[in-house]
Amino acid sequence: MSATLYPLHTALSLAASGVPVLPLRRGKVPFGNCTACAGIACGGRPNMKTPGPCRCRRVCHAWAAATTDPAVIVSPAWAAAWRRAVCVAYHPGAAGLTVVDLDDAQAIAWARTALPATRTVPTTRGEHWIYRGAMASPNAVRPGVDIKSTMSYARYLGPGTGTMTALPDAVRALAVKEFSPARPAPYAVAVPARAVGGDCRHRTPAYLERGIAMAEQRITEARSTVHTTVYRTFLAVLSTHGRCGCLTDVHVTRLFTAAQTKGETLRHCTDSWNNARTMLGL
């Protein structure tokens, strides 16, 4: 059955096998948030840590909308999306999978010598190599190679060929080179000192968590000019939270992690953060 000609049928089949799915629109990108969910105003999935529909039950929040629930997939709230869908995507990490996206012949040639054989699926220009096991999802880990697993989506292009094998250390090592969720302090990223004079109102869990979660989403949903989006997001966070001292290394790490997941290097993250601080006089 063609995943392109029959996206809803394909989605139901995948969901029945335990793979969370979502429709993609023209451009092979997720459907945007509905008005009620813009900027996570709904409050339904502020942490974006697990897949599943938000409270509005529509196809909101990109990869986090992916679901295996057939009642949701065929619901009226999703019907309009399926009528406009051009293909089906899935959330590899939630299915316990990692997709190594090889974008061209050179990347494929590298993988054949550097990675263990596993199930492969042809793409428009290259191949998807699919392994059992989940991990982070950094882009551009080397020329023509992206990793799609947790907090990411991949197009479903067919069952592929070959036997799926366990996620190897060689793939995890790729992420370490460009993607490091370590504390940002060793990278000379300054966290503003706490202001004098009482508790900071931003330290209330709802206010601070909402601000960081919205910043993570803004970065995660960037489709182009990622570097500019990261800088402007850092600037917005620091303009709101930078002078009162409510930000901690944990918050900065979350922002860096979101940016590196979109392909930003650690150096770009550090430079953007420090440039934003300089702009604000922090």
Distance between the termini: 57 Å
Strand-residue proportion: 5-15%
How many extended strands? 9
Number of helices: 9
Judging from the principal axes of the Cα atoms, what is the shape?
Answer: globular
What is the alpha-carbon Rg in Å? 20 Å
Q: State the major sheet.
A: 5 strands, mixed
What does this 3D model show about the protein?
The protein is an alpha+beta fold. Helix content is 37%, strand content 12%. It is built from nine helices and nine strands. Strands 4, 5, 6, 7 and 9 form a five-stranded mixed sheet that branches. Strands 2-1-3-8 form a four-stranded antiparallel sheet. A hairpin with a 3-residue loop joins strand 1 (21-25) and strand 2 (29-30). Helix 7 (226-241) crosses helix 9 (266-280). Residues 177-187 have low confidence and may be disordered.
